[in-house]
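Quality-control log, excerpt.
Job 1 of 2 completed; input and output follow.
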Amino acid sequence: MTISQVKYITAFFVVLWNIGQVIGQTTTVSGKVIETETGSPVPFANVVFTGTSDGAITDFDGNFIAKTTKPVDSIEVRYIGFLKKIKPVLRGESQTINFQLEEDVQTLAEVVVYAGENPAFPILRNIKAAKDANDKRALNAYEYESYTKIELDIDNISEKFRNRKLVKKITSVLDSIDQIAGEDGKPILPVFISEAISKFYFRNSPTFRHEHVLKTKIRGVGITDGSTTSQIIGSTLQEYNFYQNWLSIVGKEFVSPIADSWKLYYEYDLDDSLYIGNDYCYQISFFPKNEQDLAFRGTFWVTKEEYALKRIDATVGKSANLNFIEKIKIQQDLIKTDAGPWLPEKSRVLVDISQITGETAGLLAKFYTSTKDYVINQPKESGFYQNPVTMDWDAQEDSEEYWQEHRHDSLTATEENVYQMIDTLRKIPVIRFYSEALKTAVTGYITAGPIDLGPYNTLYGNNDVEGLRLGLAARTNFAFSKKYTLGGFVGYGFGDDRWKYLGYANFILDRDPWTTIRIERQREIEQIWLLNENVGLNSFFYTFSRFGNLEQPFLIEKNRISIQRQMGAGLNQTLEFKQESFDPQFDFTYRENLDDPSQVASRFDITEVTLSTRYARDEIFVVNDNERLSLGTVKWPAITLSYTYGMDGVLGSDLSYHKVKLRFQKKQKMGLFGISNFDLVSGYIFGEVPYPLLFNPIGNETPIYVGFAYNLMQYFEFSSDQYVELRYKHSFEGFLLNKVPLLRKLKWRLVGNANLIYGGMRDANKELIVTSQNNQGEEALPFFTFGDKPYVELGYGIENIFKIFRVDAFHRLTYLDHPNVNKFGLKFSVQVIL
């Protein structure tokens, strides 16, 4: 063998050895994949080494670890709806590489035409058939520990926004935003973050839910660490069940991609089949047939064995008929229980709220929920579910040691920085000032230590009875006492030279069950047609009515004491004792004795006691310091029955009577067809009383639409001692106009109204009235009574005009012979809706 041959053989083996070294080396890449726009994790994305099949799939939090022994020089990430991203790797080394993916706004779902049946359809039919076995609502009961994390961020921070005078004052904080956003991400400004640990309980037949908040940690700009915030950041309001045909999100109804009528709303593609953990799953992508519908696009994974939903990634885009919403994204992992049905293990929701104008910023709302320690089919007694949401009064916990031990997942470095940034923002004087100003605009109160000044609608008024009226109002808050609230107002009319006032004390006797007592004394100018429980003292309609000419005004002096107690789940009772005196400020007389028509009076006193019972089976309440607020019902109606007894001769009372009233209220979700609201009321007044004590429907002579009024009825047009009224409102959402090509881009929505009232008045109550002569010289009542037909008005309109305006057209169908009535009218309103 020659020397040259030896060199060749040696070189050959050196090359082989080097190749072996390279092939034998393992390249390991770990990292996280997030969205560029929002900073949210991208779960279920494919991470592969370029040119190979080696890689990994990101977990629910967007994390991955990928390994290969092949000679590679780059790694890439792919996921439906995002642009592919490639980054270089160091061969044969362990390294950390993070990805930020940009949304592919140009990608549209393609409709694939199959020669036979779409292969996804048999799977969807099996999903529907297996719903009852897999839906968590099939369980008799379940409970678990829940960890909830919420973050609110200002996004779309442009240079123009940064250069605004207010924003420049927080430059030091903004300078650190880019560090949080990362190399490819857009900057965001955190303004709120919270964490909560709670126990969640569910019982079937009858359906009850209960969440007990154990601990919370809250940081927010302009948001106090109040008890209300602590209750609404739990998991109760973050429940999303795709086995339901319709999901309620931000007050809207979205059709589920596995709804019973899935074929009407969605197109599907069977993309893949793969293992997720130990479950072999079908991967199916879906997208709406009509982009304007409230429907999702995305991907879900369903198990081959049970046809159970294992994982879902669903997004609502900006094309949907929503206001101010760029995107809603829901991601969820589910886990099988020992009894069969599946429970959500991890859920993440992102709501991206768009900029209102080019000079403002947007808002990101991020919700994350994790569950563990499941207990199945061990229901509690019904009384346990009495309050849908409760909390420990020492729930607010800032100790980092506690949260390190009890968090289901550790905070990322970015989330730890969020706490620090918010603490810094809260200390900046200009931020504190604008936060308080915003709070005052929303609540009507200015907080000054233990006292809240307001509401501001009591400060000023001007009308023909009082002339110029100035006033001041205040109340104590939670810092003053945790057991009672004192409050009231005082006002002076420079035209009538009289003081008006209200003083009250609310005492909390028990928080579980909620029991309160209220004592109040009031002296005020009122109007007969406004003596209606639908008119709140702080409402815009009531405030507006204090200006101009007052209709049939009177001075009222009232003493009242009421006790309210929660008797059970959804059952509340109120007992009220009231004494009032009515002093008319207009020409008013009534007959005190029908046997002696000449015996008349102009003022009267009453003393009455009222027992009211309200049953709303699934009504959700939260406690705001010393108040309990209703968030409304979910599915069931609210029914209220009240009885009032007017006691003659008690504390100077002049009258004896009985009143009975029954009210039925229901919000009916109708899926594709929108949402209906029913309000049915019936009442009867026994005994003879002056007409200010009868039922006097609220009319509306203004051009403003008023939901609780009859919009083409005149002020004090009718009076009745027996009545039935129905108010029906329907919002079609985008049901009809989404189908009209030229209109659907405007996102207008049709609305409908039907208002009906029928009643009557007994002759005895008519005879109490001292009549006057009309223009024809005939004796006439100061109002009309119902004849053989009801008052009916029908309305239709369009809302969401330029996102905030609403126009309703009303037609009055009956009693058109009354003087000065309008058969047709347009009513306008401004509303902020999604």
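Job 2 of 2 completed; input and output follow.
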Amino acid sequence: MYGGYANRLAFIDLTTQTVRYEPMDEALARKYIGGRGLGVKFVLDNGPQVEPFSPENLLCMMTGPLTGTQVNMSGRMAVVTRSPLTGTVTDSHIGGWTAAKLKWAGFDGLLFRGKAERPVYAFVENSTVTLKDATDLWGLGVRETVHTLQQRHGAECSVMAIGPAGEHLVRFAGWINENDRAAGRGGTGAVGGSKHLKAIVIKSNEKQMPKPPDAATFKVARTQGLKAIMSSPVTAPNKGGLSVYGTNVLMNMMNVVGGVPTYNGRRSDFDQAEAISGEAVREHLLVSEPTCHACPVACKKEVEVKEGPYKVRVESFEYESAWALGANCGNGNRDAIAFMIDLCNEFGLDTIEMGNALSTAMELQEIGALDAGLTWGDADAMIAALTKTAVREGIGDLLAEGPARLAARCGHPELANVVKGQAIAAYDPRAVQGMGLSYATSNRGGCHLRGYTIAAEMMGIPQPVDRTVTEGKAALLKTFQDLHAFSDCLDLCKFSAFAESAEEYAEQYTGMTGIPITPEDVLTIGERIYTLERYYNQLAGFTQADDTLPPRFLKEPGTGGSAGMVSHLNEMLPEYYEVRGWPNGVVPEEKLRALGILE
């Protein structure tokens, strides 16, 4: 087998409590690489009509060939399944040390099907998976679950778990590990809950780190990648904005251009943005700067509120969370945001979807369509509603369905800022035209990470692009989408793309696996993955009509630095379909054959 792979997959049937081991199929590994790509292939082969909460749905925990190696920023794992929030195929990536330790334990992936009769957790060690009783853990929060399992199996173990939200099938529940890292989006934790799978415990060490077939070639490639990271104005350790302030360095930057959706998107700037920005967090709350496996950037910012009603210590105060639970809800209380982030981690909730559910409820309340006891900026009411959401109590039962279903049930679907059922993130598409196209064409619903055009439109990476124009955005987005799809297969942190290009990715993949590829191959493989996902969604019933934005962003002008602007999505979509080779948004058979998806 090629370098970088453990050459072992575990197929776990939770219904029969059996585990089958198989080597990695080399043809599939070359075509779909690993991580996101291979996970999506397995989920597609399992059937796009499978109901998300049915035992037949497949839940994949996939590493890539660079996961757990000496390659920088290689501590990611893809959780892939059919989403109970959107009905699309979805993948969500978790950082920290879980992915590296899974590779070191001897696995490229764990694939779960079926439903256990009673709660279980998977214990992974020495190329073996054992299912163990988790009845005593059911009902516990994530931290108590992690603590209990580390006491039981060793403090060196990595534990990823669902909280009460996953157990109660909250449609946007995620997986959280011992480092407060999350596979947050798409409801993958709810799929775990539907299967009575409480946690995965991994015991291993770096002595089992994969080795390249040609150490000299790999060393050159890794050194070049590290050089790019160290010299980037974004990722340079202790110098770049991401390293110094974390992801929340974006708060002030986006607010200046009117790019922060506020009050459920009724405005695109927030008058309290400075108070919840990365700069303010560093000055007032920062206590530690931990990092993930093989990452010199250390973008995580552990914070502590030392006194008052929101006393808490949590990792990390991310931009998306600060926006979703802050500006989006008219909440400028920095301490309360930290407290709510901690609650989301403990309950196993996606902060982005949770914040959007709350903001949707606030606007519904304001127009008299819902009685939820929620008003703009009322942090204590938000905390109460969030807590109820995790266990589907009272108003929480509605919120647990996500903003799309919530708004529809209240007769105002237009108030949910979602695409394909999943909420958008912290970038207003009126301010950044490429991001609007990215949201609309995302294969997993509203998402900023499928094609991060913000890099070019706001940071000038790889070169500056005018955020206000539509020309050329289709080709730009396709490149970002294909590049990110490939890096998600490796599986590298998305932030590596602030410094590394297809060239660095190709060289490091070649150096580790021994399979020679070019930068052009990187983009072709990425296109294959992106098209595979589109094909899955097409078979699941999604059409061109689903490639749209919430009406607010198409009709209601932005404010602040984007005053008078709207998203011109309809000007970009035809060009996007053309560069993709998808007539009217449909993936034709000839495209599937050209990319090797169909033989």
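Post-run check on job 2. The first strand starts at residue 9 and ends at 13.
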